[in-house]
Amino acid sequence: MGPTIAKLNLMKLGKNILGTLFRQAIGIVIGLGLSILLARSLGPMGNGQYAMGILLPTMLASFLNIGVSPANVYFIASKKIKLNSAFKTNLWLWFILCIIGVLIAALVLETQSNTWFPGVPLSILWLGILAFPLSLLQAFLSSLFQGLQDFKNYNYVSLITPGMTLLLAVFLVGILKLGVFGALLSFIIGNLCGLITTLIILKPHLKKDNEKHENDVLKNYTKECLGYGWKAHLSNILAFVNYRADLFLVNFFLTPAATGIYLIAVQIAEKLWILSQAVSTVLLPRLSELHNDDEKRQQLTPLIARWVLLVSAVGTLVLALLASPLINLLYGSEFTPAVGALLWLLPGILVGSMSRILANDIAARGRPELNLYTSILVVSVNIICNIILIPRLGIVGAAMATTIAYGLNAVAKLWLYSHLSKNPWWKAILFSSSDKLLFQEGINTVKDSIFR
Q: pLDDT tens digits, the chain, 452 residues: what are they?
């Protein structure tokens, strides 16, 4: 066990994961602060309108990403493309996609706003669209740091947007009392600050890479980027729909106020993904780098998947016990109905943490389309269950539907991973004596570093 684990370079991987985890923790604190500020300042109705106001630009940025971000990570990490070629390709793709996105937004808002976003003023929806081009380019460029495995700068730029959004919201919403308008303005300017910071920090990397940008090189990367990216992209779109279909349908069947309450349950539950998100950020480029060494990959993925599942399970139990007092303390009695929805969301969030790790392994094998196939099934089940359960059970029904979908996704990912890796499915969830040895080695390493 020892030599095999050593070959995986777990110390370096662990350092990157801890750095990313620390960033995620800071992000959670910032996000929680923003969530509390907006909930208490705007109330359930205003909070729901804000959620709808940022939903369309967020959806456009996710839908029109066309897989550029995961393609950047895969091709740069596996050294199949140089940074400058990826950067130039990203810029012109972004320009084209911005035009398409604004046209789609105009069509939706001018013809379907009352149908799709009942109870939300059109001005709020239009204002939110300003964040779309900013967040799209930010997603493209931050993935370049991830592909380079420069997680220090990746983590830094990832905190600028939420950090500035919170500071601006304190001033515009908390002090100037600008309501939903101020909250959306904070979100837009926060995204702009994040993008500017990313460009500044990326510049030295681009100067280091002196590759000539021949047209053939750029055309070839565009072709390869889209060829790989569309498979990952459709899977990501469906994952996004799976994450957000419940919010849309709650607003459709119920009210913006119910959406604002349900949003709190979703935001709290998804904080449990802090570990799996941090690990996934580091793991995808690492697994892509190991594309010619399947033996190491067979050891690494199940090891990480089962540890992520265990730690997330502990967090889930603690959150379930504290759900009611936590929501009442932080958000007030108006949001008490979020407790029931939160408890029903937790099992799905737990198994979703393990699914994310396995999905990264599948994508790093150059088979992102397999994640797509499972996503189609899962999204279909999620939407059907939401349509059936929300009118009957309200926001609790939405939470039940989400957990059913995440559970199905976990089963599908386990089967696919087992088939591709030739590892038994249970290796991703059940511990063995080797885990005990690894844990002891980790404890000894920590002791040595403290008492040296």
A: 444 444 445 566 667 777 788 887 898 899 889 999 999 999 989 988 998 899 889 989 988 888 888 888 888 887 888 888 899 899 989 999 999 999 999 999 988 888 888 888 999 999 999 999 999 999 999 999 988 888 889 889 999 999 999 999 999 999 999 999 999 999 999 999 999 999 999 999 888 766 555 555 666 788 888 777 776 777 777 777 777 788 889 988 998 889 889 989 998 998 888 888 778 777 767 776 665 666 777 778 888 888 889 889 999 999 999 999 999 998 888 899 999 999 999 999 999 999 988 988 887 777 877 888 888 888 899 999 999 999 999 999 999 999 999 999 999 999 999 888 888 888 888 877 666 665 555 545 444 544 44
Is residue 318 classed as helix, strand or coil in its secondary structure?
helix
Global pTM reads 0.69
Alpha carbon separation from 415 to 94, 197, 235, 358, 409 (Å, rounded): 36, 41, 17, 10, 10
Assigned token pair, 190: 């926060």
Q: Tokens in use for 8?
A: 């995986």
